[in-house]
Every structure is written in structure tokens, then in C-alpha cells.
Amino acid sequence: MPARDRLLALFVAVLWGCNFLAIHATLGQFPPVFAGGLRFAVIAIPTILFVPWPKVKIRHLLGYGLGFGTGQFAFLFIAMDTGMPTGLASLVLQASAPFTVLLGAVFLRERVSGRQLAGILLAVAGMATIAWQQAGNAALLPVILTLLGALSWAFGNLSTRQAAPDNPLNFVLWMSVVPPLPMFALSLAMEGPAQIGHSLSTLGTTTGLIGLGGLAYVVLFGTIVGSGIWTSLMRRNPAGVVAPFSLLVPVVGLSMAFLVLDERPSLLEVIAAAVVIGGVLFGSTKRRTREPEFLAEAETPQPTGVR
């Protein structure tokens, strides 16, 4: 992987890690489910007008939109609005990786290696420790909601694998067309028109401007710029080389939450976070095997796929 691409991958990890601060700012102005609907509606309108259809089956697009979009962000935003620390949210959401492996084994008949299983067990042990720690602080529900967001993301990943889009970025952009209607309907039912109307009528206040800035960051940098660069990196490099850089997202998220929001995780939570990241990394990388030289020389390089 060229040095330029490594720097770009680090840049995306920073963008995505700071995304949780932007979500925190957005939730200071908008109700959580309504904020999730706005996040996708802002992308959906220009996508319908200017982005070509990704040429995938509708059911796969709906599955990705409902899983990755509606489910993940509804649960995540509600969790953060009800007390989930910003830094820990960036970490717990990484549970989507082991969830994806397990769901792939159940629904797609994908084989789970011993290495993957060991990584999953490590990650689960770290998550359980964080949940136990939060339960002692009467904050278990936000952790559970964040885990449900990670599970929804994993279901969305299954739809992506089945869709196998030729243009992943177009697929991601068109996915944004799915969540707004169900999220706005859910917002009306849960949060009510009075709360929604108040958030819109106070946009000119300091809190409103900060919320708009957070929403703009989530849309422009967290989604369009970050996903665009990440997709190009996955096209140019093996997925197994690029994917581990996403493990830096919770590192950035925890660090920025500490610096900006003064969130101070306990020593036990820091150790558990390291266990989670280590488990995901261990389970997502393949053991290197030394091949005989004559086989290595005869092997023809194959084009890499896009995850």
C-alpha cells in the first residue's frame, strides 16, 4: 500500500472518529431520530437528481438502507441522546465486525475460522466488560442500544455482500434514499411535532448553529468525503490492507471525546477497549503462510475486489 494511500486511510479514520463529536453537536439541537432522518434526507435529494442508479436489486438496497441507515443510526442517536458517552459509542459500534461474521455464517453459510472465532470471543469479552462497568453507573441501556445499532449495521453488511455493486459509492449514496421516510415517521410517533418544530424554529440560536454545523460535518465529511476516499482506497488496494485502518476510528473517537468533551473513561474501560480493538483486528486478519518459492513465482497476481 503506497505511503500516500496510508495517509489517506489515516485521514479517513480521523474524519470518522471526529464524526461522533459532530453527532454529539447535532443532538444538542435536534431530537435523535429526527436528526437521523435529516442526515440522510440532505444526501438523498441530490442523489436522486444527479447520481446514476447503482444497478442492484431493490431488495438489497432496501436491506442496506434499513440496516445500515435506519436501524444503525436510529439506535446510535437515541443511545447518545440518552447518555451513551461519545467516545465509548465510537468503540462499541465496532461490534458490527464480529456481528457481521456471525450473521454471515448463519445466513450466507460463510465459514468461520478458528482465528475469527477467537477474535470474536475477545471482542465480546471486552464489550461485556464495558457493559458491566456501565451497568454499575446505571447506564446499561445506552450500551444495549449502541449494540443494537452495531447489529443493524451488520445486517446491512449482508445486503451489501449480496448486492455486490459495481460502483460502491453510488450504492452508498442511493442507500440514503431509504432511511428518511421511516425515520421521520418514527420521529413523529416518538418525539412528536412539538419537539421537532422547536428544533427547527430555534436554528438561529447558538445551539442551533452548532447543531447545523454538526449536521453539515456528518453529511459532507463523515459521509461524502470519508466514504468517497475509503471507496477509492478499497479499489486500489487489497481489502485486508485497508480495512484494519477503520480500527483507528474508536481510538480517534475516544481521544477527541477526552480532549473536547472531557470524557474520562475508567482504567477498566480503557483496557476493555484495547481488548475489543485487539479482538476485531485479530479476527479480521489472516495468518500469513510461507509458500514454496516455486509456487510464489508461478502465481499470477489477481485483481483485488471491493468490499
TrEMBL record:
Principal location listed in the UniProt entry: membrane
Domain of life, source organism: Bacteria
Subcellular location: Membrane
InterPro entries: AA-Vitamin_Transporters, EamA_dom, EmrE-like
SUPFAM superfamilies to which the protein is assigned, alphabetical: Multidrug resistance efflux transporter EmrE (SSF103481)
TM region positions: 7-27, 33-54, 61-80, 86-108, 117-133, 139-159, 171-189, 209-230, 242-261, 267-285
Domain (EamA): residue spans on this chain: 7-130, 142-282
GO cellular component: membrane
Membrane topology term: Multi-pass membrane protein
Alphabetic keyword roster: Membrane, Transmembrane, Transmembrane helix
One Pfam family matching this protein: EamA
Similarity comment: Belongs to the EamA transporter family.
Protein name from the UniProt record: EamA family transporter
